[in-house]
Amino acid sequence: MTQISRRDWMGLLARAPTHRLAALMPAEPDAAFLRPPEIGTVMVRGRIGATGSAFNLGEMTVTRCTLQIASGQVGHAHVQGRDRDHARRAAVVDALMQTESASDVHAGILTPLAQEEAQRRSLRAAKAAATRVEFFTLVRGEDK
Amino acid sequence: MYVAVKGGERAIDNAHAFLAEERRGDPAIPELGTAQIREQLRLSVNRVMAEGSLYDPDLAALGIKQSRGDLIEAVFLIRAYRTTLPRFGASRPVDTGKMTCTRRISATFKDAPGGQILGPTFDYTHRLLDFKLLADGQTPPAAATAPANESPLPHITGFLDRDGLIQPETGNAETPPDLTREPMELPAPRALRLQALTRGDEGFILSLAYSTQRGYGRTHAFVGELRIGTVAVEMEIPELGFAVEVGEIELTECETVNQFTGSKTEPPQFTRGYGLTFGQTERKAIAMSLVDRALRWRELGEDDTGAPAQDEEFVLMHADNVQATGFLEHIKLPHYVDFQSELELIRKLRTEAIAARTEAAE
Amino acid sequence: MTATLSGGFRDAPTQSARAFRAILDALSRPGTIQTLSGPVTPPAPLSQAAGTLLLTLADATTPLHLAGDLDTPAVRDWLTFHSGAPLVGAGDAAFAVGTWDALLPLSRFFIGTSEYPDRAATLIVEMQDLSPNGARLSGPGIDGHAFLSLPEVTAFAANHRLSPLGFDCFLTAGDRLAGLPRSTRVEAA
Q: DSSP states of B144-171 as a string?
């Protein structure tokens, strides 16, 4: 099993398509909500001139959730969009990744999500690459 | 003066029902789904997200459907919805240098490292109506692919920066002002101006940018780089003590290279304008960077030529289409008492004028 | 860790709206005492009323100052998780909470500007008890006059004289809450 940091798996879960996460998690352990799934926003900031001071670009919708599974581990999630189930499942996975079943969860949920994401990105990058301009300069008359 | 008048409830209810029926149109035609709007009218969705100042393609699509395609009305709906949500915090500034680009062009360097990537653009289409799209059910062939280098593309202005040819853009870690939380105070710092411009009306920003090109506050802009793609949004989570990615958004960024500044002590350098907008919204991002540059005349020691695009108050106070349409459209609402007083006044004035004329004639 | 993460609203939209109504009533009818009993259970020594009020009104855009003995790791972590409010020194605070002695001197708190008097700090004074007797209150929201057990009179009378500048105040004891806006005239009974 390859190592993955908590930061990385939380990001992967946040970016995952909701229906894929649902399909990969047919069953969930019992969990008590410490903060039930809640829809809100995050103010997205940019940098002036890409490298300068921050400015407020606009908000995005985010759903967050914190819960505790029966074995005591606490899972957190902050995921883009307004899908409460997505946030709950992401928090459950976050909690499970702190238990002894982490390697199973990694193999069964995180690895497929990561592979699918890599495929999506590669395909889009390959389509963009096909629109890359190859310049060629015609010989001009006066250059003879 | 406003006076509440009761009545009209039934008329209003019936108007709503009529509106709902008109929104649906001919029931013999299949209903438009919000997923269809999100996928197939993506540029309308992007515009509503940018001006609504809320990145959520599903909500923008719903707004467009509900507003029957009136994008300013859709922006209004999105803004109204946004006010009902708690704000969890602010992201770290997005790193557009790490953008996964689907489009990246430069008008200043043909051979920019990383290359010119055209992406899904209208630029080289012939602007001829494509009657093939009238036919239903045709899925276009898959786009071509080519081996890609997935490492980040460097910012093109970075090359000018390295040689000291362009003003460096450095910053501090201060919390930027937020016009959605505090009333705008003028003069506005550049961070506040950029926030107002990025959520401003595309038509208004476009026209102002065009006016600078035609000479009203000319800035001699070149598009140093225009890039469109996705960036990760990271937020510090206090209870975790570290930052996590909460998602990915599509952005358009435009960096312009403009004519010079310099002084007796500083050799001439290019200057910059900056545009950053939600979604694939490149007309808006380019226009934003031109207006940003025009508004910088004071900090760059340029003359105020009196051009509209240099007038911060004019630009910032009129860029918001929800504010503008609210004030504009309110004049169609009942002003019966207002108007009654005007009527009385004009009758009085006329009576006096006629009396004076009669007197003079006698 | 779980103690930090529990004790918030279970159903934030409804429960915080109820709390907001009680808070609004307290501030708009100075001298009345409202009850903020609900699901919110803050860590000691923060009272239930002060905890509920902060979870209702404070967020990431309202810097919060914890004065004196309230500034414990448990209270800090709980408020950070449930409200998101950044914890700051007295001079930068939009909200400040503590006992009367811990909040002194009051000159540390922001009283707004003449352009934006609304940007003044709001103080939450944790009390042993709260009762409708003591200092005499009059002004907007009060039919004639009312009485409230204030920790002192002079400071509130001086604050009223700054109006429209000046801080606003809540007084909390257990699950009980009273409001004292800067517009209220305060005199010794």
A: P------SPPPPTHHHHHHTT-B-----
**pLDDT over 90 at C189, yes or no:** no
Give residue-wise pLDDT tens across range A104-141: 999 999 999 999 999 999 999 999 999 999 877 666 66
CA distance A27 to A25: 5
Please report which confidence band the pLDDT of residue B138 belongs to, taking 50, 70 and 90 as the band edges: confident
Question: Domain of A21?
Answer: 6-126
Shortest Cα–Cα distance, B181 to chain C (Å): 9
The answer to the question of residue A99 being in a domain is yes
Tens of pLDDT, residue by residue over B271-307, are 999 999 999 999 999 999 999 999 999 988 888 999 9
Q: Do A126 and B145 touch (CB under 8 A)?
A: yes
Query: B181–C61: do the CB atoms touch at under 8 Å?
Result: yes
A140 lies in some domain: no
CB contact under 8 A, C5 and A38: no
Q: Nearest Cβ partner of C84 from B182, B183, B238?
A: B238
Within 3-22 of B, beta carbons closer than 8 Å to A belong to none
Residue A57 resides in a domain: yes
Q: Cβ separation of A38 and C12 shorter than 8 Å?
A: yes
* Helices B71-82 + B321-330 axis angle, to 10: 110
Total domain count, chain A: 1
pTM for this predicted structure: 0.91
Mean pLDDT of B329-342: 89
